[in-house]
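Observation: inputs received (chain + D-malate).
Thought: call the complex predictor directly.
Action: predict_structure
Action Input:
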Amino acid sequence: MPTLTINNATIHYAEQGRNKAGTLLLLHGFPLHSGMWEAQLEGLSTSWRVIAPDFRGFGRSGETGPFTIEQLADDTHTLIGQLKLDKIVLAGLSMGGYVALAYAKKYAQSLRGLILLDTKAEADSAEGKANRDRMIAIANEKGSKPIADAMLGKLIPEETARNRPQLARTLRDMMESTRPQTIAHALAAMRDRPDQTGMLGNIAVPTLVGVGDQDAITPPDVARAMHEKIPGSHLRIFTGSGHMSPMEQPSQVNPAIAEFLAKV
Ligand code: MLT
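Observation:
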C-alpha cells in the first residue's frame, strides 16, 4: 500500500483501478480509516480510479500532533498534486464530509464533483463542543476503547450491531486501533471547525448528498436541508442504514455513486 510524505506527515492511501474514466477520492469518518471504503474500492474501481487516504494520524498514516479540518483539506490537496491527478470527484463521510466541504470552499477549481455522505455543514452547537471536550478527556485518560464503546451505538443502529456482528467487529477494531492522541486531535478539530452552511449556495460542481434513513448523528432532515441549499444537487436516502451507509448498504450506495459518476 502506497505512502507519501505530505506537509510533513506520512500519509498512507489505498488505491484500486487505473487509467479509468476519472479519479474518485474517498475521505473517511471518525475515528476510522480508509478501510471503511473497502466495498467502494472494490465495487467502483472497475470504471474509476479510486483512492482512499488515511488522514494524518489515522490508520497507517503517521501521527503528527494537533491539526484542523482545513489542514486535512490542505493535505488532500497536496496529495492530489503529488499524484498529478486531473480534476477529481471528492467524496467524504461525516468528518470526511467536513473536510470535503472545507476543500470545496478552498479548492473548487480542482473538483469535478462532490459527494457528501452522512455529514452536515453546521458547526458544533455549544452542547456538541462540551461533549467533544468530555470525549477528549476520556481519550487522553482512558484510551481508545471507551471512545469505541461510546461511538459504536451511534454509528450503526442497535439492530444492525446485533444482526451483523462482523460489521460491528470491523468498526470496533478500526476505532480501538486509532491512537488516543489522534482521537483527541480530531475531536478538537471537529469542535473548532467553522460553520459551512454559508458556502453551500456557492457550490457549482455536481453534488450528490446521501444519508442512511436511520442515521443518528446526521439524520435525513439534516441531509435534506443541505441538499436544498446546494444548487442542482441530488439527494439519496439509503434504507436500512445508520451513519455508516457505505459499509452498511454498499448495494445501494455503490450504484448511487456509479450513477452520479456517469453524469459528471
Ligand atoms: C464521524 O462519523 O466522522 C463523526 O461522528 C462526526 C462527528 O462526530 O461530528
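Thought: report the result.
Final Answer: The first strand starts at residue 3 and ends at 6. The two ends are 28 Å apart (CA to CA).
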